[in-house]
Amino acid sequence: MELGRKLLNIQEIDEKLAEIEQKEKKLKELEEFLQKVAEKSDKLSERVDKDKKRIVGLKRDSNRLENEIEKIEQKYLKKEKEIYENNGFSPKELESIQDSIEEMKKLKNELEDELLVAMDNIEDAVQSLNKYHGRQLEVEKEHRKGKKKLLFHSESIMQRKNELLAAKEDLEKELPGEWLDYYHKTRIRYRNKVVVRMEGNICSGCRVELPIYRRQIIKENKELQICDLCGRIILPPE
Ligand SMILES: [Zn+2]
Predict the structure, then answer these.
(1) CA–centroid distance, residue 21 to ligand 1 (Å)
(2) 181 and 238 belong to one structural domain
(3) pLDDT 10s digits, 5-18
């Protein structure tokens, strides 16, 4: 019977739409997950930028220290040369020059210690930068892959859904309103399993034997029958 077949077709479409709904839920979850991945990537990127800036500052500091050390060194070497080449200094002058050389050497040592600390800091910052940059690249890759997957599946699911909805709309136009209403009302209760086949003498929905007169009408396949017990629409065996 044409009516029964069409109701069955609608039911098949509704089953497929329910599957699509599940897939959409999964995609929604993937989308939320990707949102978190993007946030993670942003945080790592901030961290990497911070390290980069820190390294620039530290390098500037260490260059400045190196220049200062160099200048001081030249200054006291010059003084030492003066002492070496000129014996005309009075003992007092000599003492004062030697004191200032000592002062400069002391300062140079202090600056060299500072330079060592700065270089250690640069090394630490570079290590940190490499670590976070590596992670950032991994996370970005994960995000790209997920996004690609999401787009691909979203598009194919959307297309499939539209096809099914269009087919359902066409079918619904061909069905009498009261049967369509009955189908929709009942399918919520039975999760899209409203239209069932008669199996032997029983309704395959509730597994209860059907009265003889119903079985007869179902077999003749001229009029749709509803199971007295469960309310499902019963079609003749295939
Ligand atoms: Zn039944």
Answers:
(1) 27
(2) yes
(3) 999 999 999 999 99
